[in-house]
Amino acid sequence: MDKVEIATRNSASLGSLWDFILLEFNRGYSLENDGKEFSDKREKVYNFMKIPLEVERLMLYGICQCVDSFLFVYTFLPLRALVALKSLICSSLSKLKGNHEKKYLSAAEICDLLKMAVLITCLMMLLPWDTSMIYHVIKRQSVIKLYIFFNMLEVGDRLFSSFGQDILDALFWTATEPKTSQRSHFGVLAHFIIAVSYVFLHSILVLCQATTLNIAINAKKGALLPIMMSNNFIELNGSVFKKFNKTTLFQLLCSDVRERFHLFILLLIVVVQTMKEYQWTSESFWKLMLDCVYVMILEIIIDWTKHAFITRFNEINLSVYSDYLLSFAYDTAQSYNKKAFTDHSDSVARRMGFIPIPLGVVIIKVLTRCVSIDGQLVSIVLLLSILTCVTILKIVNLVYIIGRACKMINHDKTIDLREACLNTQILENMESDLAHNDSDLNLSIALDAGTQY
Fold first, then answer.
1. How far apart are CA 185 and CA 183, in angstroms?
2. 193, 125 contact by CB (below 8 A)
């Protein structure tokens, strides 16, 4: 029977037009015939809905690492630089006295001194700058120029962040390189000038970013919405429809962590500058906080949408975010090891592209302009109280980072140990089964031989 005859019989079995219409009403779905496919689709929907929670868990830990690296500039770096300076002075005095036992500075002390020197040099270069002039130059621009300028500044910030840590690492290695190695470089002074130039330019760029955002938030025409919407949707369009694997998704996630913390610092600068203009009134503060919360919520929603569709289009399993979090934990544990080759702040900078020194310079510049501290005892006590609170926050945040890292690493090792024990037990069972089969085979062969005999 050919296909034509089958089609003819099927059309004849339909009967009249009324039977055809009834067939349309009574037609059903036989989903159970392809249950695995529909179960997989349902699981993809569930994974799509779980993405925001996984992203925020990783974002929280990554931002805590950025906070630790940022607060290190204001708390422990000056203290470590003072200790290194004391060692340098003692070493110089012992050399002048003709002491043969020379005490050289360690690599960590040299790096601390160089970081503090770069920070102080860039701060002295940036303090004379008049930020009001930058504010009025940017404010005279139209809305279109404003958000184009803001996008250009963000691109420049990403380029500086991706290359800045290499410049600082080159300075640190040049200063701490062993004497026996072949010196094929410009010298410490040239690398120091390059590092200072980079930090100074990056600080100016961050200051322009904060000024542009300040103008956008306080503009009467509502210039904040086009700036933030255009910036976020350009990022969404540039990320969602690209091909990603686990490695490139991890790089994107690290960039998102740095970007969110960077935006938080920019909004903090905007709040301080705006409150200075409004004489620190509570009404203006709450109005400003609503705009800042709006910006952060928009940034969070864009991150959720971006990662949800990236994992959906590239068929990436949800468990990769747990692997990324574990990678952050191992980075933290290795940086606090006694034989670690890098500081935790530098490790965060290499992993996420977050460099705290330019942000530290800009924060000090803004605070010195907006908060006046006279020589009174009350002002000095207030400043010391703020530094104490910042130090306590740094220590508490550090305890949380290390504690959670140890907890995740121990959990991962426990899982690996269980899997190893399970694999060992499976191998032992297979060997016993093979041995049992061999013995049965030998017995049957012997019985056959005896029967033949």
1. 6
2. no
How is residue 104 annotated by DSSP? P
3-state helix, strand, coil in the chain (%, to 5): 85, 0, 15
169: CB partners within 8 A, 6+ apart: 346
Closest to 207 in 3D by CA, of 129, 97, 114? 129
pLDDT string in tens for the chain (453-residue length): 454 554 455 555 556 777 777 777 766 666 666 667 767 777 788 888 888 898 999 999 999 989 988 998 888 889 988 988 888 888 777 777 666 555 677 888 888 899 999 999 999 999 888 878 888 887 787 777 777 888 888 888 888 888 888 888 888 888 888 776 555 667 888 889 999 999 999 999 999 988 888 888 877 666 666 666 677 777 777 777 788 888 888 888 888 899 899 999 999 988 888 888 777 777 778 888 888 888 888 888 888 988 888 888 888 888 888 889 888 888 888 877 666 556 666 777 777 888 889 998 999 888 888 777 665 677 777 778 888 899 999 999 989 988 888 888 888 888 767 766 766 666 556 556 555 555 554 545 444 544 443
Q: Token pair for residue 284?
A: 């203006």
Q: Which amino acid, 116?
A: M
* Residue 125 three-state SS: helix
Enter the tokens of residue 311.
């994992």
Closest CA relative to residue 342, chosen from 331, 353, 357: 331
Q: At what angle do helices 35-72 and 320-335 cross, to 10 degrees?
A: 20
User: Distance between the two ends of the chain, CA-based, in angstroms?
Assistant: 63
Question: CA–CA separation, 114 vs 195, rounded Å?
Answer: 10
Cβ-contact 75, 394 below 8 angstroms: yes
CA atoms within 13 A on the CB side of 282: 0
CB-side neighbour CA atoms (13 Å) of 162 = 10
Distance CA 266, CA 418 (A): 46
CA atoms within 13 A on the CB side of 4: 0
Question: Which two tokens mark 442?
Answer: 């030998």
DSSP string, 30-47: -GGGGHHHHHHHHHHHHH
Instruction: Name the DSSP class of 74.
Output: T
